[in-house]
Design brief:
The protein has 210 residues and is of the alpha+beta class. It is built from three helices and 13 strands; from the N terminus they run αβββββββββββαββα. It has a single domain, classed as Jelly Rolls (Sandwich). The strands form two sheets. Strands 1, 2, 5, 6, 8, 11 and 13 form a seven-stranded antiparallel β-sheet that branches. Strand 9 and strand 10 form a beta hairpin.
Length: 210
Amino acid sequence: MKKALVSLAALVAVAGAQAAVVTIDGFDTPGVSNTGSFTSTDAVRTVTVNATASTSSLDIGSTSSTGSALEVSNRVGQDSTVNLSWTLGALSLPSNATNIGFFLQVLESDGNPTSLDFTLNGAALSSFTIPGNTVGAGLSFSLTSSEWATLSAGGTLGLELNGASGWDLAIDTFGVSYDVPVQAVPEPGSLALVGLALAGVAVAARRRKA
């Protein structure tokens, strides 16, 4: 009977997972708005844009048409490489965190895929791609355990954005995503089954004493 009770309890306590994000940059103020090639440094980030045409543009923060966002716009046949860097302290996540990765809230990308090349203290860390025609999606890019160990120590995190000529991209939030296990709350019906099982154990115990 005890074995049956343990099995029943295991069925009731079904575990799930809850996703969370530690924000590195919400692309709020201080704002940046410029065209062509330029460099901007403030207390949050450094942005360098190397553009092939003076009409390629980048907007961050309150100057953005979508509000709190980073927007890159290149006309047909034009291209720009956008480099961002942040100075990070040591990063700490819950000890039971899983599925750790970089997170990007992509408001919109055009038909061109966008490459993401991350570095830490100047050394290559990881590379990913935002698919073309991504609209209103939160994307997580998984990091290996060694990549996370390197990143979690902190330092200068760099991100290079680039795509085919004419690429456009709008990003809202950039950060680190992870999952933490969550114990599911038993439903009333399941609790009733456990109660019946406990009652059965009590009855069996009284019979053995008798």
